[in-house]
Design a protein that fits this description.
The protein is mainly α. The protein has 15 helices and no strands.
């Protein structure tokens, strides 16, 4: 929200990115155990050839190429990012394209500038295109989780391009009965949204968000899920005292 442009990565967001990286590394072994299906599929995608129906700009790009190589491919052809989202209507292309883009952003956060330009200069309907993938009937969990991670990451890094109504609609769609997203996929999306300091208070008041983060069982939850919940609580600690309502027993 807010009309004035904000820096792509503020101080607390940079700290959040560093801590998120530590969480990801610390929980790597558990991710492989508890989400082996998704990890196996990603490994297969990384070894596979690109589908025929991906955008022309990406046809010569190896999916495991460095982030800056991928970024250059998107920058080299106008409309490549929008065409990539359109290609996600096909399940095989969606797996490949979303894996490529998500890996690029995880490796180098400067690549979010592609989305800032797409949203600002080119008016690409990022929200509509990615939400359609998340909510499409029959979407496989891997694709839904990737699309949710991507959309929430873009919102978290450039919240000024999205309305509260859009964010609320996204949050509701993630929790809707029959959603293709996994529990960890939903939590990942909430954490990405919380990285935007302008969203934390309003997001925390949206139905299901605080409950998802604060009702985790330390004894029974998979390690990656538990770490993400702890990370979310750490992000909330940046807010002024009294800005958020937190139960006392959650803070102990």
């Amino acid at each position: 929200f807010g009309s004035k442009p904000r820096p792509l990565i503020s101080n607390d967001r940079r700290m959040a990115a560093e801590a998120d990286s530590l969480v990801a590394r610390y929980g790597a072994a558990s991710v492989e155990q508890t989400h082996s299906g998704a990890e196996r599929l990603r490994s297969e995608i990384l070894r596979s050839q690109a589908p025929n129906n991906i955008p022309a700009a990406l046809k010569g790009v190896e999916i495991g190429a460095p982030a800056l190589t991928k970024k250059a491919a998107f920058e080299g052809q106008s409309g490549a990012l929008a065409a990539s989202f359109d290609a996600c209507q096909d399940a095989g292309a969606a797996r490949w394209v979303l894996t490529l883009i998500c890996d690029m952003l995880r490796e180098d956060s400067s690549c979010f500038s592609l989305f800032e330009e797409a949203l600002g200069k080119h008016q690409v309907k990022v929200y509509e295109k990615l939400l359609a993938v998340v909510t499409r009937q029959g979407t496989e969990q891997y694709v839904a989780d990737k699309a949710a991670w991507l959309l929430s990451s873009v919102i978290g890094n450039a919240p000024r391009f999205f309305t509260e109504a859009e964010i609320r609609g996204f949050v509701e769609s993630l929790q809707r009965q029959g959603s293709a997203c996994s529990e960890l996929g939903v939590l990942d999306a909430f954490v990405n949204l919380l990285k935007a300091d302008t969203l934390r208070v309003v997001l925390w008041k949206m139905p299901g968000v605080s409950e998802t983060i604060t009702t985790v069982s330390a004894q029974n939850a998979p390690s990656p899920y538990l770490y993400k919940c702890i990370f979310a609580m750490w992000l909330l600690s940046f807010e002024a005292e009294g800005a958020l309502h937190l139960q006392e027993d959650i803070l102990v």
